[in-house]
Design a protein that fits this description.
Organism: Halalkalicoccus tibetensis
Strand content: 25-35%
CATH class: Alpha Beta
Structural class: alpha+beta
CATH architecture: Roll
GO molecular function: hydrolase activity
CATH topology: Thiol Ester Dehydrase, Chain A
Number of strands: 5
Radius of gyration: 16 Å
Enzyme class: hydrolase
Family: Belongs to the 4-hydroxybenzoyl-CoA thioesterase family.
Distance between the termini: 22 Å
Protein name: Acyl-CoA thioesterase
């Protein structure tokens, strides 16, 4: 999975009373990696693209501790008409700690309704992920 990876620094504030990264913080790690993906692959900040996170699912496999190094890998399996599904693997010291899936939906900035992914973004994602996007995102 994933040509794209993001290294995450575990902060002391991420740790809960049980001595490991709180389960809610995993979503923050995924968000941080997704933000970096947009910067690197789409060459724009997630904050300057009209999108909304439609779904996020996390599956936990093992705890992450303060002293561990964390890496989040991202894979985009397909490109929808207006939706961008993303798959994540979260590793702690090289061992998988969790997996996640999300769907980012592109919006028309004026109506805030789903809007086709701009061609320039579609082309960059397809090239980076080595996807055949000849259908132009017909599966949404």
């Amino acid at each position: 999975m994933g040509e794209f990876s993001s290294d995450i620094q575990v902060r002391f504030r991420d740790i809960d009373a049980m001595g490991h990264v709180n389960n809610a913080v995993y979503a923050t790690y995924v968000e941080q990696a997704r933000t970096e993906y947009f910067k690197e692959v789409l060459e724009t900040g997630l904050d300057s693209v009209s999108t909304v996170l439609a779904t996020l699912e996390l599956s936990y496999e093992r705890p992450i501790l303060l002293e561990q190094s964390v890496t989040v890998e991202i894979d985009v399996p397909e490109i929808g008409r207006s939706s961008l599904p993303m798959e994540y693997e979260i590793f702690a010291d090289g061992e998988r700690a969790a997996t996640a899936e999300s769907v980012q939906v592109f919006l028309d900035p004026e109506t805030e309704k789903p809007h086709p992914i701009p061609d320039r973004f579609r082309e960059r994602i397809a090239a980076f992920e080595d996807l055949d996007d000849a259908a132009g995102g017909q599966s949404d």
